[in-house]
Automatic annotation (TrEMBL):
Alphabetized Pfam families for the sequence: HATPase_c_3, HSP90
Function per UniProt: Molecular chaperone. Has ATPase activity.
Origin: domain of life: Bacteria
Name the record gives this protein: Chaperone protein HtpG
Region (C): 547-625
Length: 625
């Protein structure tokens, strides 16, 4: 940064500069969303001041207590001004909010950019880009802001290129004014009819009056929006389009909601609820903080937009508003943590959300499956976090399967179990492709036994706390015995008898591998692969053990069991060799190579690649020497 007199020059953060370049050169067809974004920000600024004034009434200046957003079009000067009397911004807040990317959503937007401008412009319609959308219609922007309670006013200015400037300014009262110098190809946004249509379409629900004026004076100023909090109105009075636009406002999102839940609770507690399930994953869905993004209001006064106790973390993808009639208006964020009224509301709202999910799953299975596509990995966190609703969430849960192409529920799985099958079989893996390639599935496929494929990290954790479903134990196919001998397959091929020398081969491998495996045994779970590794019944599942080890939460894993496929030609050949003289020494390299092969099949890194290469070279040399 350099400073000449009182004019400060700042460079944009690299990600912002890239985004601005895209905006400046955008030919996006729905450029009018810029006005929705700016009005939404202005509404938020008024909400924040209304809350702050609960504890500091002096922030509401005399004669300026009624909140409003004013949109003024001046066709002669080619400017569009959006002004509010909300909380305003300080010098540093202007830098932080307009010069850098603070929201994880915008950062995620940047990660989606490919470098191909034509493709990237199309992404504008899929992601909320907030303030920066003004550069689709303006070639220069001035933001004048004065923080409530402060004396200083600052002017932020940029042409959407590589830098912005800051200089002291003058403003009679708190709030922010944004002046857009409209591009020549965007003069439609100076026309009264066009502006009125945009405001009615996108911002009619905003609970702050929006005043439109088409000249620099106030003679023709009039309120455009309804100005009533949408969530307090009867459902019959709200159109689908109004619901959608309120979702865009409250979620700062561009997609349409996949599900809308609107009701009023009356009785011991009274509150209004308007919640949405997004179609696409919010950008902060997997943020470690796992905060709720539902806005909490008390008697239409904004209190918080990230209240941790409003909803459980596994429902953090929900967006919307909960407005309480019972909480005190002067409640602080600290008091929210252990407030009994809020705790009762959370329980009731969570029950209602789960109940609505159950109804959706029955009435619109495809619609619920689409929701599960986006948010199933998060909802499943409730299986181990929310004991009270565990059974409900388990019934809602969907999984991939070895026999079905779509989602499978546990109820559907149990209904299809084979007559002799006593357990629900599952396999955990890093991704679906890796799961389907697992050698552990070979024997189950051969007998037509369905296995559920668990590929979300959360699966490893909830499975440790859930032992059964509908009275059927849940068993990992990578742990313990396969149980396949007791299950009759429809077109089962009779297994070949164990080859001669199998006992001797197992004894030799046990001797050579005694320090690195728990046991060596024959198995019926393999049909195509020669070997695999499994965990013992009492040990931790291999996949979760690897995850914990990778995150340095586990030391060395317990030694595992090496299983051999007695029908595989390689194992048969080694069994035959095991009966010959000198077999013990001859099988040493083969034993370690089999173990390394099993590790590779599990997607593991070999502990000693040099040793593996040496042994493989020696075996090949003997074979072809």
């Amino acid at each position: 940064m350099t400073q000449t007199d009182t004019l400060e020059h700042h460079g944009f953060q690299a990600e912002v500069a890239r985004l601005l370049h895209l905006m400046v050169h955008s030919v996006y067809s729905e450029r009018e969303i810029f006005l929705r974004e700016i009005i939404s920000n202005a509404s938020d600024a008024c909400d924040k001041l209304r809350y702050a004034a609960l504890t500091d009434s002096e922030l509401l200046e005399p004669g300026n207590k009624d909140f409003a957003i004013t949109v003024t079009a001046d066709a002669t000067a080619r400017t569009l001004t959006i002004a509010d009397n909300g909380i305003g911004m300080t010098h540093q807040e202007l830098i932080d909010n307009l010069g850098t990317i603070a929201r994880s959503g915008t950062s995620a937007f940047m990660q989606e950019l490919s470098g191909d401008e034509r493709k990237d412009v199309n992404l504008i319609g899929q992601f909320g880009v907030g303030f920066y959308s003004v550069f689709m219609v303006a070639d220069r922007v001035e933001v004048t802001s004065r923080r409530a309670g402060a004396e200083e006013t600052w002017i932020w200015e940029s042409a959407g290129t590589g830098e912005f400037t800051l200089r002291p300014g003058a403003r009679d009262h708190r709030g922010t004014s944004i002046v857009l110098h409209i591009k020549e190809d965007a003069t439609e946004f100076l026309e009264e009819v066009r502006l009125r249509t945009i405001i009615k379409t996108y911002s009619d629900h905003v609970a702050v009056p929006i005043i439109l004026s088409t000249n620099a004076g106030e003679s023709d100023a009039s309120q455009v929006n309804t100005g009533a909090a949408l969530w307090t109105r009867a459902k019959s009075d709200i159109t689908e389009q109004q619901y959608k636009e309120f979702y865009h406002h409250v979620a700062h999102a561009m997609d349409d909601p996949a599900m809308t839940l609107h009701y009023r609770a009356e009785g011991t507690l009274e509150y209004n609820v308007l919640l949405y399930v997004p179609t696409r994953q919010p950008f902060d869905l997997f943020d470690p903080a796992r905060k709720s993004r539902v806005k909490l209001f008390v008697k239409r006064v904004f209190i918080a937009d990230d209240c941790e106790t409003m909803l459980p973390p596994y429902l953090r993808f929900l967006r919307g508003v909960i407005d309480s009639e019972d909480l005190p208006l002067n409640i602080s964020r600290e008091m929210l943590q252990n407030n009994p009224v809020l705790a009762k509301m959370q329980k009731a709202v969570t029950n209602r959300v789960i109940s609505e999910f159950e109804k959706k799953a029955l009435s619109d299975p495809d619609g619920f499956n689409a929701i599960w596509d986006s948010f199933g990995a998060v909802i499943k966190e409730g299986i181990y976090e929310d004991f009270e609703r565990r059974d409900q969430i388990l019934k809602l849960a969907r999984f991939h399967s070895t026999t079905e192409s779509g989602w499978v529920t546990l109820d559907q799985y149990v209904a299809r179990m084979k007559p002799d099958q006593t357990a629900i079989y599952v396999l955990t893996a890093d991704n679906l492709e890796a799961a389907r390639r697992s050698p552990h599935l070979e024997g189950f496929r051969a007998k037509g036994v369905e296995v559920l494929l668990m590929v979300d990290p959360v699966d490893d954790f909830w499975l440790t706390g859930v032992n059964d479903f509908a009275g059927k134990p849940i068993k990992s196919v990578t742990r313990g015995g396969s149980d396949l001998a007791g299950i009759k397959g429809a077109d089962e091929k009779k297994s070949d008898p164990a080859p001669a020398g199998m006992t001797e081969l197992i004894a030799a491998l046990k001797d050579h591998l005694k320090d690195v495996v728990k046991d060596v045994r024959s198995t019926d779970r393999l049909k195509e692969s020669p070997v695999c590794l499994v965990a013992d019944d009492g040990d931790m599942d291999m996949h979760i053990a690897r995850l914990l080890q990778q995150n340095k939460q586990l030391g060395n894993m317990n030694p595992r069991i090496l299983e051999l496929n007695p029908e595989h030609p390689l194992i048969r050949a080694l069994a035959a060799r095991a009966k010959q003289d000198g077999a013990l020494d001859a099988l040493e390299d083969a034993g370690h190579l089999l173990l390394d092969q099993a590790r590779i099949l599990e997607g593991e890194t070999l502990p000693d690649p040099t040793d593996f290469t040496r042994r493989l070279t020696a075996v090949m040399a003997r074979a072809f020497g």
